[in-house]
Amino acid sequence: xxxxxxxxxxxxxxxxxxxxxxxxxxxxxxxxxxxxxxxxxxxxxxxxxxxxxxxxxxxxxxxxxxxxxxxxxxxxxxxxxxxxxxxxxxxxxxxxxxxxxxxxxxxxxxxxxxxxxxxxxxxxxxxxxxxxxxxxxxxxxxxxxxxxxxxxxxxxxxxxxxxxxxxxxxxxxxxxxxxxxxxxxxxxxxxxxxxxxxxxxxxxxxxxxxxxxxxxxxxxxxxxxxxxxxxxxxxxxxxxxxxxxxxxxxxxxxxxxxxxxxxxxxxxxxxxxxxxxxxxxxxxxxxxxxxxxxxxxxxxxxxxxxxxxxxxxxxxxxxxxxxxxxxxxxxxxxxxxxxxxxxxxxxxxxxxxxxxxxxxxxxxxxxxxxxxxxxxxxxxxxxxxxxxxxxxxxxxxxxxxxxxxxxxxxxxxxxxxxxxxxxxxxxxxxxxxxxxxxxxxxxxxxxxxxxxxxxxxxxxxxxxxxxxxxxxxxxxxxxxxxxxxxxxxxxxxxxxxxxxxxxxxxxxxxxxxxxxxxxxxxxxxxxxxxxxxxxxxxxxxxxxxxxxxxxxxxxxxxxxxxxxxxxxxxxxxxxxxxxxxxxxxxxxxxxxxxxxxxxxxxxxxxxxxxxxxxxxxxxxxxxxxxxxxxxxxxxxxxxxxxxxxxxxxxxxxxxxxxxxxxxxxxxxxxxxxxxxxxxxxxxxxxxxxxxxxxxxxxxxxxxxxxxxxxxxxxx
Length: 715
What we know:
Number of helices: 18
Number of strands: 37
Shape: globular
Strand content: 25-35%
Distance between the termini: 23 Å
């Protein structure tokens, strides 16, 4: 079905959002009349720009227009991608040399306490003998120590030896180093030595990618700051190559307007910024989905006057991963620290948790556990599920959904791919044979396992942060989200599901990118014990806000369009773990400081329980940051009252709902493309769209199309 919006900001052409996932590349186009269209093609690693252009072509074809007209008339293109993440996962990164202060070489090898346990189950944590640190992100022989020293207050204790620096750079170049990461002690307070060292590197290696920790991660914490800088250096060349190729392809296609790159912080930046700090783009696809969910939740709440609609759990199930975000009062949760495997690094991001549970997740017999397992390994875009007939031999969650009757073999991606049911059934039977399970029983078990794993991911993202999932609406998107949403909600006790904008849910992250704002985050260490130095606090806010506005101005955003939010990281003086706190605006005085401390106490008790705060304990402010935002135009979704009517039934087919066993249930199948606002469908039912499928599992589940065009399922 089409969804329309009101034209905004005088747009004359299309607004385009593109999200590159591990399996599919999605395009969303909003034209000048407000009509929303979707394009979907398989991703093409490592040459992701091919999948990008193919997806644009798919959208143009579905809109009945030429590729040249679509791209040439576009006002702006917003892009979320996994290029940096894929480069790391697939080991296609540049060879990094690390330059660091003498005596601090081992900070990334020592890690932080508990780092080696990150991501482990309780059973694995209890098996102490099996604990291992991860492989080093840069080997010790590619780390050169520099003779220099800056004190914690920024005073230079030891001047940097330029000739020794040049010898260190030459030594790393002789070992084949392609990029340089510079992380010197206390450079977050005084970056002069890092800046000078970067100039020396550029003089010795003019074509090398060089990155400084003071720009990448200006916070105290040698380990996390070093990790961030090394990762930025490792993926820098891959991102630069990709953006150069993409901009070239777009230019040849006639596109002459801005390309906006999505970041993990929940906004967009221009390509030059993304080239310098490619680490900001990691995880941007899942983040874009959360941004879109938050925007739609705010619109729906305003329409209905329902504040409960502002509390959302987003579930994005693509071909490779399941990504979870939590939105409270219409705003996504954030966190100041990001993780890559067992490594932690300081880059502010929206709080999105991901697990290896997608349509391409492989179903297999686990010899060690003597049970069926689903994921985290994925068949990816190539070869893909067995049913694709492209060389895949291991069954996937998509194959299971096909055998269970959830998916139509003749209408997958609107009929663009014909699925082989027999091949999927044979592969599932082989996977279940060691357990004595046939194809249908294996498929049912795989679907239940997958749903349980995704439910656990939601619990981690919500319950462990003090939020009850039963008090939230589940926004289910991505190609697999609507297929599994009712099973997930049933397990979690969630009573309402939203499939955002119907078929557009399959490419929702692309729409989230297209609706994003420009976002710049600037931060600095505070290092203040209570009582806080009010003059220093005010000077720090002024500096951070000036820097953020300057970066915005460099991207063509005037200061009058920018909105700034303040945050601090605080802790009790006797603890090491920090809590991010919303900080008051304006010039600070004693009353503002008291408000800040009260905000910390309230957030602490929300996280750790009522009465958990420490009365009379001293407080420590460790970091300060500002988040500057500015709208870039965009569009506003329009409502339609709709006249209801009778949904179009396409037929019936046998469907297996695992909670009822493996006996098939004859189930009506409806045409999702023919739905309009006001229509209702009662379960059990299958609702087929071009790019996804909604599964209603029981008589108590009822789907209604709301005025915004979303399908709302009440359980």
